[in-house]
Amino acid sequence: MTQQTDMTELHWLFDMLQHIDAGLVVINEKYEVELWNGFMENHSGVSSSNARNRSLFEIFPTINQSWLQQKLDNALALRTPIYVSWEQRPHMFPFKSYRSVTSIADTMFQNVVIRPINNANGTVNHLCLVVYDVTDVAVNKAALSAANRKLDQMSKTDGLTELNNRASLDRAMKLTFDSFAMGNSGPHCLVMADIDHFKRVNDSYGHPIGDIVLQEMAKILSSGSRRGDFVGRYGGEEFAVLLLNTDKNGAQVYCEKIREQVEQRVFNTSKGDIKITVSLGCSEIGKQHETIEQWIESADSALYQAKHNGRNQTVIAD
Questions:
Q1: Is 176 in the same domain as 306?
Q2: Is residue 102 predicted with pLDDT exceeding 50?
Q3: Which of 41, 148, 177, 255 makes an SS bond possible with 292, Cβ 3.0 to 4.6 Å?
């Protein structure tokens, strides 16, 4: 009766190993397969009878043999389990993903545990590799990370023009001012640009057309700037450009280039062609600016002077 019970339990054990939702592979010291369960059969396309007594590296020639051998040898020598996360290595075995929810993942993401198997006499000459399909976890985490990156980008970007928003501008200007105040950088220039008579555009053509003009203005400012410059929408039809490592002479060249591009540009809209101009005020940061507010006010005053002088021009603050 005891022998029959033992045989029944052994049958149950083998049946459970065959149908468990994880891969089970037992290999010897020569990396030859001695056990290969149903999970491995289903995902590899290699039957248990064909896998048995063959080297793991013969069955999967694309596995990084030197990397995996080191892991296996360490587990045998140290007699301690080794855990390989999908975040370290997306997969050990090149299985295709089959879950509909994870259609964006072509290959199964896996967590693998390499566990030494103790013999009855205490020796260890076999290893068990347990393979878990964690594709859903990996894809969900990737989707969450992508969503967080998008939210972070949205928090820093003006929705209409896709330039940096006011909060981002304020942070950039503060960092620049603080760095200059500590004697760590310079020269830097702050440019304020304002579309001339923009209210007329909105009144004559409507706000949707005004939005198109703002978007095109943003493209002109961005295309005319260098990689290290910081371009943003300051508010309404006013834009700010932080020209790093640029003195007022270089800033004037930049401003005039932008002004001429805007003046020569014809904005094609559904309600006809529109021509606009832009006024620009610029201030180079200096010792006379005791606070960041004074630096911004200096650029604003230069912009006001450009407007007062007739618009469509650049004024550099003294």
A1: yes
A2: no
A3: 177
Q: Are 50 and 128 in the same domain?
A: yes
- Structural domain including 32 reads 2-142
Nearby residues of 269 by Cβ (< 8 Å), 6 or more positions away? 205, 209, 212, 213
Number of compact structural domains in the chain: 2
Q: Are 24 and 37 in contact (CB under 8 A)?
A: yes
> What single letter denotes the amino acid at residue 158?
D
Backbone angles phi, psi at 32, to 5 degrees: -90, 140
Q: Are residues 114 and 193 in the same domain?
A: no
Is 32 among the catalytic positions?
Answer: no
In the block, which residue shows the tokens 């610029």?
282
Q: Among residues 29, 34, 58, 237, which one is catalytic?
A: 237
What contacts 309, CB < 8 A, 6 or more positions away? 315
* Interatomic CA distance for residues 318 and 309, integer angstroms: 16
Residue 292, token pair as written in the block: 């960041």
Average pLDDT over residues 189-200: 96
Average pLDDT, the chain: 87
Give residue 13's pLDDT.
Answer: 58
Closest listed residue to residue 123, CA positions, set 28, 225, 25 = 28
What's the pLDDT at 104? 58
Structure tokens at 273: 């062609």
Residues 177 and 299 grouped into a single domain: yes
Q: List, in order, residues 6 or more apart from 19 with CB less than 8 Å away.
A: 38
Token reading at 28: 């010897």
Q: Indicate whether 118 and 213 sit together in one domain.
A: no
